Inverse folding.
C-alpha cells in the first residue's frame, strides 16, 4: 500500500505536469496547426491587439492577456533595485504552411525603480535583439514594465510585468504572439500582503507574499518570485492521531468488550493536548508574535471556552456510560455491530468519531434535555461523517430495544438531494444488518432492525396499486417491475452481489431478496423497505430519504409513524401497522383488500416518537427550500410534541460553518453546536494531523485565447491519450513518470476515469457532444457517461456500479463522467481521482463538496478551469491558493428566513391539513377527508379552528411574528372556514377549501432561484 501510494503520488504529479506542458506547447517544436488555436497557457497577445479591444475592457485582457507578471510590496524606501528575468518563444509560419517554434530566448534585465508612482520600462532593446536573432526578422518586441501604484491600504505596490510590445499583425510572421512566457524577479526584499477577501481570525494566516497577474506565483528564494501558468494548491492527507504519541485502542473489538479504559485514555489525551495548545499563556504568546488585534484575542478566548466545554461533554459521556448499564450495553453492542458491518475493510473508529459519539450520548438517555441543541458534524479534512452518525443511531436503536421500544422509527435521515444517496443508503443498510445479527445473537426482543428508503415516486413507489392505471410503472403484474425499485447493490448481511428483486403478492411487499444460500439472514426478504406504504406498515428503525418527502404528511395519514404511534396493528402476519381507515382500506390496513380488524398497538404509544431527525448537507437548506423546510420542521416538532410529549434531537452535517448558528435557529428553532471544535490554528488539531502524503492537488487554469470548451476538450485529450499510452506501453510511460511499471494496472484504474464537473447542463451537454469528435485519442473514442439530475434512477445505479467495479479491459471502461451538482454529495468511489471542473460553481460550499469526490483514498488531481472573463472566477484565480487553503471560510453566508409571506402562502395549506389528519382525525372518531366531515367536526368542536390558527402562528413565529404574516394566517383561516361552511362549487376535499390552493407535493415545489439539484422528473 505504501509503495502503491508513493507510486500514485508520483504519477499524479507527472500527469498534472503533462497536462500543463501540453497546454503551453513545451514539448512541441513543429505543428501543422496554428499555435494560437492550440496553446491555452503561457501565451501573450500583442499589447496593441489588447488595446484595440479596449471596448471589451479588462475582461478581454484576462481572456487573452498581453502581459504576465507579479504584484509585490518592496520593503526598501527610496529605490528598488532588482533583477528581472523573462523567457519566451515565437512560432514561425514556414513555407509548407506548417509552423516551427524558435529556440527559447531568455533575457536578464537589471531594473532600478524609484519608489514613487509611475511607469518605467526596461530591457526593450535586449528583447528586440534576441527576438530578431531567433526569428530572423525585426518585428517582435517585448519589455519589462514596472509600475508603481498606491495599494488599497495606501502603501506603494510594485508591479513587474513582461509585456508583448509587438505589432498586432505582421505579414511575414503571421502570428505576433509570444509563447511559453514567464517572468521572475530576484534580489528584491518584500513584505507580505494581507488577504482582504477574508476577515481577521486568530486561527488563520492571511499573509500573501505576492500576487500573480494573469498567472500564479512561486517563491524562488528569500527575495525572489516567479510567475507560474497555473496556480497550485495541494492538500495533504491527514492522520487521525498524532504520530509518535501513544494511541488508545479504538478498534470495534476492544470497544465491544472493554470500552471504558480506552475511552478514558482518549479523554485524558484530549485534555492534556488542550492544556498545551489552548493555554492562556500560549494564546498570549501567539497574540504578540502574530500581532493579533484585541478582538482576535477575545475570539481566541471564546474558542478556548468552547473547546473546554467539548472536553467536558466527552468526559460526561464516559461518566454516563460507566453509570448506566443499559447505555453501556447498547454502546458495546453497537461496536460489535459496526465491526460486523465494516466487514474487514476497517476495524477501528477514527478518534473524532468516538469523540462525537461520547459527546452526544446524553441525547440517548435524556433526549428532552438535549433536544434543544442541534449537533453538527463538521470535519473539513476527511470523510467518515456517515459512520459517525451511524454509531450514534445504532447505539440509540439498541438502547430503544433494551428500554422496551420494540418497534417504530428511531431515526429519520434526510438528504437534500434525491439520487446519489444510494451509496450512503447501502452503508446504513450494512450497519443495520450488523445490528440485526447482534440482536439475534443476543436474543434481544423486538422487531428486526430494518431500513426504510423514503424518496420520490420516480425512484421507488409510493404504493403498489392492485389495479394500476396505464402509465404507472409500478404494476404488480409486470415481472420487470420489482427490479426498477432496487436500491441496494449488495446484500447487507453476506456482502454478495446476490440481490434479486421480487414482489410477494401474499403480503403485498416489494422485496430485496438475497439468493446466497450461505447468507446469515435466515429469511427470503431482507429487512429493507423501499415502498412508502411498507415504510408505514413496518416503521423500520431507520428511515433514509430525501427531505422533500416531508411534504407528504399533509396528504398521508399513514405518515403518523414519523411523529407518533400508528392507530393499531393488523393481526394478519406480514401486514404491519394500521392507520386511519379510508374507503379503499376500510380497516386501516394498508394491504389492499385486507379484511382483518386491527388490534391495539400492544405498546405505549409515546414510545413511537423518533429520537432523531438527521439532516445531511445542512448548508443546502437555504433560500426558499430552507424557508419552506423551516415551516415543516416546526410542524413535525409540534406533532411529535402533541402525540408523544417530546421533540426529537436533530443531528446535521454541513460543508461549512459560515452562519450555521443563524441557519439552525431559523430552520429548527434550536441552538447549534459543532463537533469537533477546530483547533487554535490549522496546524493544531487534536483530531487530524496532516501528513506528507498528497491528498488532492488543485490546479487553476485560466485558458488564454481559446474557449473554455476547447480547453476542456484539449485537457481530456491529453489525459486520455496518456492513459492509453500507459495501457499500450506501460514500461515506457512508467519510466517517464518515474514509477515502477508493476503499478501500471493500478494507475490505469486510478487515473483512467476523468470527472468533468459542470455548473450548467448546457456546459455538460457540450462536453458530451464534443467528446466523440474533439477528444482526439488514438483508437475508439472515449466512453462517456453522465450523472446529472436528468439521469434516471436505474442508470445512476448502473453507472456507480461500473465505476466501482470497472470492466477488465481499459477500453471498455467509463473514461469520462460528465457530472452536475447532483454528484457533489455522497459519491464515494476510490477510483475517481481526476476532475476537470468547468468553471467555478456558484457557491464555495459546492466547490468544496464537488472536488472532494476525487482523491478520497488515493491522490487526486483537480483542474479548475476558470471562466476567467467572469469577475468571480477572476477573483478566485487571483487568491487561488488561499481559496483552497481556507476553503470553508470563503463560503458565503447562507440566506435563509422563516418569515416569508410568499413561502407561508405555499406552506400553510400543508401545515393545517397535516395537523387535521394527525391530531384531529383520531379525536374525531371519523375520517376528516371530506369537506363535509370536517364541517361536522368543527361544528361539534367550535374552538378547533381558532386553536389551530394560534398553534400555527406559534409554530412558525414563536411569538415574534410580524403583523403582515399574522394577518395572512388570520385571513387564511377565515377563508378556510368559510369554504368549509359553504364550499365552492364541486369542492369535496379539504384541499379544495384551502384558500391558497393544494398543499405542496414536495418541499422542492417552491424552489425558485436555486439550482435544481435533484431528479427533475415529476
Ligand atoms: Zn445475503
Ligand atoms: Zn391486514
Amino acid at each position: 500500500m505504501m509503495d502503491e501510494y508513493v507510486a500514485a503520488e508520483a504519477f499524479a504529479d507527472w500527469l498534472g505536469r503533462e497536462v500543463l506542458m501540453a497546454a503551453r506547447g513545451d514539448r512541441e517544436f513543429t505543428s501543422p496547426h496554428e499555435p494560437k488555436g492550440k496553446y491555452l497557457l503561457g501565451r501573450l497577445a500583442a499589447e496593441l491587439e489588447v488595446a484595440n479591444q479596449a471596448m471589451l475592457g479588462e475582461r478581454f485582457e484576462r481572456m487573452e492577456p498581453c502581459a504576465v507578471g507579479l504584484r509585490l510590496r518592496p520593503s526598501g524606501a527610496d529605490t528598488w533595485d532588482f533583477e528581472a528575468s523573462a523567457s519566451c518563444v515565437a512560432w514561425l509560419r514556414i513555407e509548407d504552411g506548417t509552423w516551427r517554434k524558435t529556440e527559447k530566448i531568455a533575457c536578464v534585465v537589471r531594473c532600478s525603480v524609484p519608489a514613487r508612482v509611475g511607469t518605467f520600462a526596461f530591457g526593450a532593446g535586449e528583447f528586440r535583439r534576441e527576438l530578431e536573432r531567433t526569428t530572423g526578422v525585426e518585428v517582435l518586441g517585448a519589455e519589462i514594465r514596472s509600475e508603481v501604484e498606491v495599494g488599497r491600504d495606501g502603501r506603494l505596490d510594485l508591479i513587474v510585468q513582461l509585456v508583448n510590445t509587438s505589432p498586432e499583425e505582421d505579414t511575414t510572421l503571421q502570428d505576433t504572439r509570444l509563447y511559453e512566457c514567464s517572468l521572475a524577479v530576484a534580489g528584491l526584499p518584500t513584505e507580505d500582503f494581507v488577504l482582504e477577501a477574508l476577515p481577521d481570525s486568530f486561527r488563520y494566516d492571511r499573509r500573501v507574499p505576492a500576487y500573480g497577474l494573469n498567472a500564479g506565483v512561486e517563491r524562488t528564494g528569500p527575495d525572489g518570485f516567479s510567475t507560474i501558468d497555473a496556480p497550485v494548491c495541494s492538500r495533504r492527507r491527514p492522520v487521525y492521531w498524532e504520530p509518535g504519541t501513544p494511541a488508545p485502542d479504538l478498534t470495534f473489538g476492544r470497544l465491544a468488550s472493554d470500552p471504558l479504559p480506552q475511552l478514558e485514555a482518549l479523554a485524558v489525551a484530549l485534555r492534556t493536548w488542550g492544556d498545551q495548545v489552548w493555554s492562556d499563556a500560549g494564546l498570549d504568546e501567539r497574540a504578540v508574535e502574530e500581532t493579533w488585534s484585541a478582538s482576535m484575542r477575545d475570539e481566541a478566548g471564546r474558542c478556548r471556552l468552547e473547546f473546554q466545554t467539548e472536553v467536558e461533554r466527552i468526559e460526561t459521556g464516559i461518566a454516563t456510560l460507566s453509570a448506566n448499564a443499559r447505555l453501556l450495553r447498547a454502546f458495546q453492542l453497537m461496536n460489535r455491530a459496526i465491526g460486523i458491518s465494516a466487514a474487514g475493510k476497517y476495524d477501528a473508529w477514527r478518534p473524532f468519531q468516538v469523540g462525537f459519539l461520547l459527546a452526544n450520548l446524553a441525547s440517548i438517555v435524556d433526549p428532552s434535555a438535549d433536544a434543544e441543541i442541534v449537533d453538527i458534524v463538521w470535519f473539513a479534512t476527511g470523510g467518515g461523517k456517515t459512520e459517525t452518525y451511524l454509531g450514534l443511531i445504532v447505539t440509540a436503536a439498541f438502547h430503544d430495544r433494551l428500554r422496551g421500544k420494540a418497534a417504530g422509527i428511531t431515526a429519520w435521515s434526510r438528504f437534500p438531494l434525491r439520487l446519489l444517496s444510494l451509496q450512503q443508503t447501502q452503508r446504513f443498510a450494512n450497519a443495520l444488518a450488523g445490528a440485526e445479527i447482534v440482536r439475534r445473537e443476543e436474543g434481544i426482543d423486538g422487531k428486526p432492525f430494518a431500513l426504510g428508503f423514503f424518496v420520490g415516486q420516480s425512484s421507488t413507489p409510493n404504493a403498489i396499486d392492485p389495479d394500476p392505471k396505464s402509465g404507472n410503472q409500478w404494476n404488480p403484474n409486470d415481472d420487470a417491475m420489482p427490479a426498477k425499485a432496487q436500491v441496494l447493490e449488495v446484500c447487507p448481511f453476506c456482502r454478495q452481489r446476490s440481490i434479486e428483486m421480487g414482489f410477494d403478492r401474499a403480503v403485498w411487499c416489494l422485496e430485496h431478496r438475497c439468493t446466497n444460500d450461505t447468507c446469515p439472514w435466515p429469511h427470503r426478504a431482507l429487512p429493507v423497505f423501499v415502498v412508502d406504504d411498507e415504510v408505514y406498515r413496518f416503521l423500520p428503525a431507520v428511515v433514509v430519504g430525501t427531505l422533500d418527502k416531508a411534504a407528504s404528511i399533509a396528504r398521508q395519514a399513514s405518515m403518523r409513524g414519523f411523529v407518533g404511534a400508528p392507530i393499531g396493528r393488523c393481526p394478519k402476519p406480514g401486514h404491519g401497522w394500521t392507520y386511519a381507515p379510508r374507503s379503499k382500506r376500510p380497516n386501516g390496513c394498508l394491504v389492499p383488500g385486507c379484511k382483518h380488524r386491527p388490534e391495539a398497538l400492544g405498546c405505549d404509544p409515546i414510545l413511537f416518537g423518533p429520537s432523531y431527525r438527521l439532516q445531511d448537507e445542512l448548508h443546502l437548506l437555504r433560500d426558499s427550500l430552507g424557508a419552506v423546510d423551516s415551516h415543516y420542521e416546526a410542524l413535525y416538532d409540534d406533532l411529535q410534541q402533541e402525540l408523544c410529549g417530546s421533540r426529537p434531537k436533530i443531528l446535521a452535517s454541513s460543508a461549512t460553518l459560515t452562519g450555521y448558528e443563524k441557519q439552525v435557529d431559523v430552520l429548527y428553532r434550536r441552538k447549534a453546536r459543532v463537533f469537533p471544535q477546530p483547533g487554535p490554528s490549522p496546524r493544531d488539531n487534536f483530531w487530524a494531523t496532516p501528513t506528507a502524503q498528497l491528498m488532492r492537488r488543485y490546479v487553476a487554469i485560466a485558458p488564454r485565447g481559446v474557449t473554455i470548451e476547447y480547453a476542456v476538450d484539449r485537457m481530456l485529450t491529453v489525459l486520455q491519450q496518456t492513459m492509453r499510452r500507459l495501457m499500450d506501453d506501460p514500461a515506457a510511460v512508467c519510466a517517464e513518470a518515474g514509477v515502477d511499471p508493476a503499478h501500471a494496472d493500478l494507475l490505469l484504474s486510478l487515473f483512467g476515469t476523468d470527472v468533468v464537473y459542470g455548473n450548467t447542463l448546457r456546459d455538460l451537454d457540450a462536453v458530451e457532444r464534443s467528446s466523440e469528435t474533439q477528444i482526439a485519442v488514438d483508437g475508439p473514442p472515449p466512453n462517456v457517461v453522465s450523472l446529472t439530475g436528468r439521469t434516471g434512477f436505474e442508470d445512476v445505479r448502473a453507472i456507480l456500479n461500473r465505476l466501482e467495479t470497472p470492466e477488465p479491459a481499459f477500453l471498455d471502461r467509463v473514461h469520462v463522467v460528465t457530472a452536475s451538482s447532483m454528484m457533489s454529495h455522497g459519491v464515494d468511489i476510490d477510483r475517481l481521482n481526476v476532475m476537470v471542473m468547468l468553471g467555478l460553481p456558484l457557491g464555495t460550499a459546492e466547490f468544496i463538496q464537488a472536488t472532494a469526490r476525487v482523491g478520497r483514498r488515493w491522490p487526486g488531481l483537480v483542474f479548475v478551469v476558470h471562466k476567467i472573463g467572469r469577475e468571480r472566477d477572476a477573483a478566485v484565480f487571483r487568491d487561488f491558493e488561499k481559496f483552497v487553503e481556507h476553503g470553508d471560510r470563503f463560503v458565503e453566508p447562507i440566506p435563509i428566513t422563516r418569515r416569508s409571506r410568499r413561502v407561508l402562502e405555499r406552506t400553510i395549506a400543508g401545515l393545517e391539513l397535516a395537523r387535521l389528519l394527525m391530531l384531529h382525525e383520531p379525536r374525531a372518531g371519523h375520517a376528516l377527508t371530506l369537506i363535509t366531515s370536517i364541517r361536522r367536526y368543527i361544528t361539534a368542536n367550535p374552538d378547533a379552528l381558532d386553536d389551530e390558527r394560534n398553534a400555527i402562528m406559534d409554530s412558525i413565529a414563536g411569538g415574534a411574528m410580524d403583523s403582515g404574516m399574522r394577518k395572512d394566517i388570520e385571513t387564511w383561516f377565515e377563508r378556510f372556514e368559510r369554504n368549509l361552511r359553504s364550499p365552492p362549487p364541486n369542492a369535496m376535499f379539504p384541499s379544495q377549501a384551502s384558500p391558497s390552493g393544494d398543499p405542496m407535493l414536495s418541499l422542492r415545489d417552491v424552489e425558485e432561484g436555486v439550482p435544481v439539484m435533484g431528479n427533475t422528473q415529476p
User: Anything to note?
Assistant: The longest strand covers residues 689-701. The chain is about 40% helix and 20% strand.
